[in-house]
């Protein structure tokens, strides 16, 4: 991955969508990165609460931007050379489809689209990537069978410029580790 002057761009932009799939693992990875800002869709706010991740707790660790404007005002920060990487994790099949087809009508999809237009590398943790996905709902484990359209959209997303698609928390961690090395950065070792 390449893109832009990493010296001027000093932060990760981490967009959260309305998926609960590996949500806790994704937020835990975000917390280990240096200088991360969270960008939440309206659906993400609902889902975070359902999974026991209250907004007030996240604000203690991250700068948090919420999807409260029709034009996704926080996206403008991408133009100020603040971010070197945009992560969308976890990404619902709806978000994957929107990103794959160029729709940008939520804060995460706007962040993804504008980052690509600026040459800022994007990493998308797509949830529906296998014929069978076992995931934790707020109350129980469920088995999902993504349809061909969801799987095709993941493949379409892989072809988008400045985008790397990952399919598991372990793969996300490995790609983030490579990105940190490229930027000469290190994981946070403290839990605060």
What does this structure look like?
The chain has 192 residues and is of the alpha/beta class. Helices cover 38% and strands 21% of the residues. The protein has helices at residues 23-32, 42-50, 55-61, 93-101, 107-118, 148-158, 169-182; strands at residues 11-16, 36-40, 63-66, 83-91, 122-126, 133-136, 141-144, 163-166. It has a six-stranded parallel beta sheet, with helices on both faces. A two-stranded antiparallel sheet has the order 6-7. The two termini are 29 Å apart.
SS element count, helices: 7
Name the beta content range: 15-25%
Order of helices and strands: EHEHHEEHHEEEHEH
**What level of helicity do the residues show?**
25-40%
* Rg of Cα set: 15 Å
Sheet with most strands: strand arrangement: 3-2-1-4-5-8
Q: Kindly state the mean pLDDT as a whole number?
A: 93
Structural class: alpha/beta
User: What is the CA-CA span between the terminal residues?
Assistant: 29 Å
Largest sheet descriptor: 6 strands, parallel
Unreliable segments of 5+ consecutive residues: 1-6
Strand elements, count: 8
Based on Cα principal axes, name the global outline: globular
